[in-house]
Give the backbone structure.
Amino acid sequence: MPYGVVNEFSDLIGRITTQGKTQQILERFKAHFASAAGTTSTWSSSVSWAQTDMDSYMRQAADNAPLFLEAFYDACESLHTEGLAVPDAKVINRVLAKHKAGYEIRPPDLISLREDAGPIEVPATPLSIDQQAREVIQNSLSQSEQLLSGGNSRQAVQEVLWLLETVSTAFQGLDIGTGTVQVQGSIGLPRCTVISPRQPAAASAMGRISRPESRPNSTRRAFSATSYGATSSS
């Protein structure tokens, strides 16, 4: 995908963010582009980091033009259902034609204008936050049971503490669609709850989880080309 398209789409996203909560809108686009790039995203710590992370995922997703366009279009459609003004197919196609991207959107289809277009490579769908959390919990509990059966009660307790610490730190603050994971209660016995509903966004914490060898004993309405300054190709 030409970088001119990436840059103009980024500008369009910036205009969309003026209609609502900036970070939530950026996170929506970030999640879609991350999925197109074959990975998952986590909630950024600030608006500026959300913008930086989204731009990074956009560049990665741009290597696969069809998935890049699908990510942008789908994110726009999801925001459109919530009452935000977003680019329609006409605006998007003007940007694509301007930069000779070789594609055109004819809802619900994406049409390749190139004769040499090959098959679209779709990256494997990453595990959801729920699937990854279940895997971590099941593996840890299984390991703890094996240690307890072998008479290693101290190590079994350490394994459970590691699990509690993992849940209370690695997953804290992640957006899981219905809200964010936050921890309440004492440090020794954290209790995880889901609060602060936000917009849906894919999330994954597994990249931040590492198991040490041993641990110490501690715890549309569509906007028009005129209103948003889109220009047609010459």
